[in-house]
Amino acid sequence: MSIRTLDDLLAEGVSGRRVLVRADLNVPLDKQTGAITDDGRIRAVLPTLGALVEAGAKVVVCSHLGRPKGAPDPQFSLGPVAGRLGELLGAPVHFATDTVGDSARSTVADLADGQVALLENLRFNAGETSKDEAERGAFADQLAAFGDAYVDDAFGAVHRKHASVFDVPARLPHVAGRLVLREVEVLSKLTGDPERPYVVVLGGSKVSDKLAVIEALLPTVDRLLIGGGMCFTFLKAQGLEVGTSLLEKDMVDTCRNLLERSGGKIMLPVDVVVADAFAPDAAHDTVRVDGIPSHRLGLDVGPETVAGFSAALSQAKTIFWNGPMGVFEMPAFAAGTRGIAEAITKADAFSVVGGGDSAAAVRALGLDESSFGHISTGGGASLEYLEGKALPGIAALEN
Predict the structure, then answer these.
(1) Of 181, 213, 234, which residue sits at a domain end?
(2) Domain final residue, candidates 157, 181, 205
(3) Which of 37, 167, 313, 354 could make an S-S bridge to 140, C-beta 3.0–4.6 Å?
(4) Does the annotation place 123 within a ligand binding site?
(5) Average pLDDT for residues 321-328, to the nearest whole number?
(6) Per-residue pLDDT tens digits for 340-389
(7) Distance CA 100, CA 96 (A)
């Protein structure tokens, strides 16, 4: 793979030049207060932004946040992100209150060397996500006018064929930022020749969301440990009662087929924490998977499962983890996710946390991020990379 890097751009000199940086600042916000609840994605882009600022570039950052419908929506404004980004950079970030309009044009025009501007949410413009190439291209033209060079440091968006990810790099000299480069290097280790045993832990709610990656990984992994809500469809495929637990009925036959051809690689929970309701204060206790009451639902894996999964992880030399083991946001159902995360940190292995809810869980549970080999910023992007799919944002950087 031949991709020019940020270091290549810096070597050419960027002082006084406008550099358009596509970042992934899609951080979670508190619905009541609008406060940022996890700034991990903002921190992840700091090495790239810091290097450009230090080199004297006029840095124009763009990103999406949430899923607005192609028009301004105050609940998805990047305003709070601009404030937090400025705190972390130690200098004010100039915020444009639109994407490519008057505010954006004047904000970019007023930048001095070494200053940073952030444009308003890209998805406030329908051209960002449009499937119409002309509409997307017209928006890309407007964005590209803000830069003399383009840096993609938004790994969490490289699997999207969006204007800022796919079309803008065709219009400007383009390079991969530090974060994107690191993500590709790490994930290529997993798809190349990983040190064995190679153990993958998959959680989350739906089998359908992870089916493609399970299909891609089964031939290459040594063990595949399955927890989270998706485990109940596999348990149902074994003929077990799963009560009112999350269940994808149309995936039961698929799961049965996967189990039959996995050669014993797939490990499922042996006990689960069941509750009367999906609520933080619901009455709950631990049962064997062959004893789930018909009126209760599973919300976490149990301690015996954590012990069994931990034993498999302790033998691993390479680990990939994507998806929590239970509803970790509720303390009563967080022990499974915490136990597996701690087992990963104790293993003498190269470990990769595959973004999304797994990365959020690491931070929410107060675990030491440095004890993992790599925490990805792109849940969907990392899964599609492991599936072997071509990622539009990476392809655009290769051209």
Answers:
(1) 181
(2) 181
(3) 167
(4) yes
(5) 95
(6) 999 999 999 999 998 778 888 888 888 888 899 999 988 889 999 998 89
(7) 9
Kindly give, in sequence order, each residue whose CB lies less than 8 Å from that of residue 123, ignoring residues fewer than 6 positions away: 64, 65, 66, 67, 68, 70, 76, 129
| 67 annotated ligand binder | yes
Q: Catalytic one among 137, 228, 356, 379?
A: 356
Tell whether residue 65 is among the known ligand binding residues: yes
Q: Find out whether 378 is annotated in a ligand binding site.
A: no
Residues 177, 231 within the same domain: no
User: Does residue 235 share a domain with residue 106?
Assistant: no
Q: Which of 41, 178, 182, 338 is catalytic?
A: 41
**Same-domain status, 229 and 377:** yes
Which single residue is written with the structure tokens 């039961």?
Answer: 252
**H/E segment holding residue 397:** helix 392-398
Domain range for 65:
6-181
pLDDT score of 32: 86
Is residue 397 in some structural domain? no
Burial class (CB in 10 A: 0-12, 13-18, 19+), 271: buried
Do residues 266 and 374 share a domain?
yes
Mean confidence (pLDDT) of the chain: 95
Same domain flag for 197 and 336: yes
Please determine, for residue 316, whether its predicted confidence score (pLDDT) is greater than 90. Answer: yes
**356 flagged as catalytic:** yes
Concerning whether 206 is annotated as a catalytic residue, the answer is: yes
Does 13 share its domain with 158? yes
How many domains would you assign to the chain? Answer: 2
Residue from 206, 256, 317, 389 carrying the catalytic annotation: 206
Q: What are 269-282's pLDDT values in tens digits?
A: 999 999 999 999 99
| Catalytic residue, candidates 56, 86, 114, 380 | 380
Please, are residues 242 and 296 in contact by the beta-carbon 8 Å criterion? no
- 259 marked ligand binding residue: no
